[in-house]
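Holo model, zinc ion. Inputs:
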Amino acid sequence: MLHAFRSLVSPELSIVQILPQTDRVVLVARPKSAVSLCPCCGGQTGRVHSHYVRRLADLPWQGRVVEIRLQARRFRCANPQCPRRIFTERLPATVRPKARRTTRLGESLLAMGFAVGGEPGSRLSRKLAMPVSGDTLLRMVHSASLPDFVAPTVVGIDDWAWRRGQRYGTIICDLERNCVLDLLPDRNADSVARWLKRWPEIKVVARDRAGLYADGARCGAPDAVQVADRWHLLNSLGEALRHAVGRHRHSIAAAVQIMASVQRPKTGSSTLPPGLAQLRADRKAARRERWDEICRLREQGCPTSGIAQLLGVDRRTVQRWLAAGGEPEHSRPHRPSHLLAPFSAWLEARWASGCQGGPAALARASATGLYWKSGDRRAMGR
Ligand SMILES: [Zn+2]
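Output:
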């Protein structure tokens, strides 16, 4: 039985006895090596001075707390020149000097502390049979050694929201290592400049197109190259395109109508079901009404947020419509389903004979290339 457990403990130890108790498993163990190295002079010695019992907490077994009762030894240093006459033996693969838990248990607890913090970690540790107090977990986290820090050379600076739409801070990322370097509590040029001055190694600052971070970077890292990052470039391009197209929407709608009138006789495309056509007309009329209302409120000097509140729509919708100079045209491409196309005639016949339930409606919509939403389904009297 002992042999089966040997591989589960440190290779430096031999298990002498296993003492299962009601609340824990006690392993009586002793060091395998007959000799030890003096921590002062490094000399090897086999002259045992005395024995003592050292209690170590270890990783749990099958949900039970494990205690190692280690038959530890003190040695005499064999080197007559060494100032250290007696020392306790070191077991570097098992436990640090004077520690009361094994290194591997300490690593697990540290991971827990980093993941969930002090008190939650403590509650979790009791559930996992490696109990530790919240204070101890925090102490372990605070004294943990940090990974080597490499000074950043390419950083990205952008907003991050404490509370979206209300309060923003600044996030600074290392773009070469894809990690967050710092979160600044506010969004202003001075704090960005102060942060950048701490890292003279920075060569490139990627930022949004606003002037705020440009000022911060100019002041804090005057020799660094400032670039717009890819996301902001694409975002700005998208906005510009939307505005450009929005200004010509009437021309586009007229062109689409001309194309449709040219193509219709050739393809013999199906017309919209009467209910859906009416629904779309209603929606278009509602958008037109809403746009008229926005114009009226705007003329009265109402701000964008006020208009949004009064009409019960999103502020960004009002902004978008105002920027485009009118309500959007919603048109859906005619894309018949290849799968259902052969059955469209049969589906139309079923529809005409009164079978207009949910599945039939969806199949017909798919076959005729109509885009269906719950509102459309309601409109068809489902
Ligand atoms: Zn020594």
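Residues 118 and 151 are 30 Å apart (CA to CA). The chain has five domains: 1-101, 102-146, 159-228, 270-331, 333-382.
Archived with the compound record.
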